[in-house]
Amino acid sequence: LQKLIHLLQATDDPLIQEQALITLSNSAAFSVNQDIIRNLDGLFVIGGMLSDCIPKVKEKALNALSNLSMNIKNQEEIQVYITQVCRNVESAPLNSDLQLAGLRLLTNMSVTRDYHHKMIDSIPCFFHLLSEGNERMQIQVLKVLVNLSANPAMTRHLLKAQV
Question: For the domain 1-78, what is the CATH superfamily, name and number?
Fold first, then answer.
């Protein structure tokens, strides 16, 4: 895991980055690896890949963070990327894998109320995706909206959203 994280930092080759991110994402399926990746500053390195201009690299980074976000301690570090993830979802092509990967991460991050406030500005986008997206997109958006709607503090923001 340490070598993969170092490889991500050392290379600009998108194909190598994608493969390293896929391997880290698969490794994150095991809870012990989630802690190891966090302790090796892997969340910071993977989060840095969200600024990459290559959509496939961003998508793989989002998938890795999504798997890593199943851990409360990891969520505390990943939450700094929520605004950026929301922007990626809004700017990605409709129904793209990149958009779906971002929504999966937001679904995991919205399971608890801790980070709902960071998604408020994206609520109109979520409703747009619910209206215009394909079935896969609609299902994922509904998961985010259901999580947000479980928080009474979000009611006003959900109801006043410009749709």
Answer: Leucine-rich Repeat Variant (1.25.10.10)
